[in-house]
Each structure stands twice: as structure tokens, then as C-alpha cells.
Batch of 2 targets.
Target 1
Amino acid sequence: MILGNICTRNCKFCSVPSGSPAHPDPQEPKKLSKLTSELEIIYLVITSVTRDDLPCGGAAHYRDTVLEIRKNNPNTSFELLTPDFVGCSDKALDFLAEALPFVYSHNIETVEELFPKARPQGSYKRSLELLNKFSEKFPEVPLKSSLMLGLGETYLQVEKLLRDLRSCGVQRVAMGQYLKPSKSSLEVQEFITPEKFSYLRNLSLDMGFEAVQASPFTRSSYMAESM
């Protein structure tokens, strides 16, 4: 995770501290490049806190990080899991274009009906618009999203979410069980059975998704290199 450990938002499913972040560390790309070399990482998922305080939402820092790592690790592949770049998505995508190739991922997280409860500072429509915009701008780039189950969503709501993702060009999807990360986080409403995850996996494949991970322990980066 880059761009610090303080988020400008306060999503109710997340335990990352919210507040006023420090300025991005200009040495972070070099530090990560060194770490990638030392650990001999061949597939690297890069994500960040949401940085609504930055003019490009942190996209330039994503770009700089990928380009710096590539200098010493030309065989490393990347997956970028970004926030929604509210108010600056066009500028952000222009910055990211300079760091291709990579898998692009933005997590929808939950169904539209639960956004006001789980992601009060987010927007279901805005997340879909970002994914669609990226798909139209870079149709050759694999596009991925992830969601949590167990927050009180219905099957019909999940099915609609999956169809919305497909309509935006998303090809890969990961679904996992929501687990309460802190005392102040949302309560788990349901523990989804492996059978239900299997059903949703098959449903997603029938919809045309090319790769699907769906299980209680699936997370955004779960087996990402194999998707």
C-alpha cells in the first residue's frame, strides 16, 4: 500500500485510520523498487489509501512507483488497485497511461443499496463510471473489481452488481466474505456458505467474466497473479 496509512475517507467496513494524510513520500518509489528486488517479486499488487487531498488522487505517485520499480525489475508484472479518483478521473487515467502495461482494478465493494451505509463518501455510479471510462480508454488492459458479501445484500442485488460490472467492461471479479475489522465497523449480517460462493462463481462465468475468484477467504489480491 502506497501513499501513507491515513485515508481521507471513513468507510464503515475498513479499519484504516481516517484523517489528514502527510505529503506523499518522494522516496517511496525507490524504496519499493529496492524491496521488490530483495524479495524477487514477480507479480506486485499496488494499492493505496484514498487521497482526495491530492490534485490527481495520487495517480502520479502510482505511475512513478511502477516506472521506478521497472528500472531494476523488468520482469515484474503489476496490478494497480486504485481509489475512485473523484473529480480528477480523466487526469488520473492520463497519468496511469504512462505506466502501462498492468492489470487495472477498482473495487466496487458492495451493492448499490448498501453504499450509503458502507461507503458514505463513495458513489456506486462514480465507481462504475471510472471502470467504464478506463475500459473505453484502454480496451486491451485487463479490468478487475472485487466485492464483499455478508453485509446484508440480496442475491438479486448481487446479480445486478455483476451485470453492471460486465456492462462496464470488467473481465475479472473477486468475491469474498466480509469480516468485521474493528469494533466500530459494520456488523457481519451473514456468513456466506461455500455453496453460495460456488453458485455466484458459476453465475459470473455465465455472464461472461473471464476469471472469477469466489470463496469465504477471497480478497482483492487473492491469487491475483493467476487470474
Target 2
Amino acid sequence: MIDVLGNGSAPRLVVFDLDGTLYPKEAYAEQVLAVIGRMFVELQGTSAAHADAKTAELREAMRTNWSGTSTTSFVRANGFDVAQWLEYREAHLSIADGLERDENLVRELARLREVVPIVLLTNNTRSSATAILDKIGLGAGGFTQVFSSEDSGDTPKPDPGAFRVVLDRCGVPAARTWSVGDRVDIDIEPLRRLGGAGIAVDGPADLAAAVDHLIGLARQG
């Protein structure tokens, strides 16, 4: 089921999230939790018990408030900087290994791409995002542009600065840009704060409905 958070505009650009949006969040959460626990021990020298407590805290946040929980924000709040997190994640996390090609996803995004440009905005590194996109069948070429952690720098989602990078490079005003993601607070609200709109989905099974809605709006505008 989708949740449309519109502004009355016809989209000239659609920005997609990656984790939990283009593949199921279940393939993401436990792997990320394990890597974060290991990072506490190896980089901060904490005890295994402390690391377990921290990952339990994050797991509970994911369970009760998935829409508002950002792993990047969590590690930053616990003393890691963005570069440190990305380097460790790149070395120890390989979400792509557990994924497979999704023909429905490929078809739906191709259908939307015929009507309006689509881009990807993710807090993943470019190499990690590319590996995931290749595995699910889209490839980086499935999008007009791919924006990764290397592009957003010190302003990763949920910072609106990540969306400002996309808008500036694509030359599209926020008011004509829509975001599609599985977490309202992380993927939708930062763009809405700039004047944009969005559609919240529970995962890839909802993308057909989101695409139908966006195509309808684009053709009206």
C-alpha cells in the first residue's frame, strides 16, 4: 500500500531510494546490524556486550519506527563519522550477495522512465549501490543518474542537502520533483521540506502502484 504525500505537481523528476525500496528491507536489516555491532568492537574497543546492547537498540528502532530510522544517523550519533562508517561498511557489508534479479522491478521502472527521468539517491557508496543494482537487474544504466554517498558527502539523507545535490545537478525545481522510498522521515520528508512531494512504499511490491500514480500525474501535467 502506498502513501501519497503530494503537492499538486506533475513530476519532472523522480528520485528513488535503494535499501528497502528496490529490494526487501529484510535483506538489509540483519546484515547491517551485524556489521554495526562488529564496528563498535573493532573501532571503538567496546565490549561485545556493549555492542550487542547498541545493536539491540537499533533493531528495536527499526521494528517500531522503520520510517524514521537511519543507520547512518545512528552511527553518527554514536561517535562514528560518515567517512569511517562508509569505509567500514564497504569493507564488511555485501548486501548484493543475498539478492536476485527482480523482473517486476525492472519492468516497472522502465515503464516510468519512458515518461519522466528517474534517479537514485542512496547513502550507500557508489560501488555498493552498483553491485546491488546489478544484482536486482537494473544496473546503474536503469537510472538517468545515480547519486551516492560520494555525492552527498557530509549531508547524507535525511539531510535535505542530499536532495539539493540532486536538484542542482539535474536542474529541476523541488516543486516538480517526487521522491519514492520506504521511510517517510528519511526518503520523503527532506524533499518535502524543500517544496517537493513523495510516495512512501513498503517495498518493491508497492512500486507498480507508485509508478501508476506518477505516470498519471506526469501525463496530466
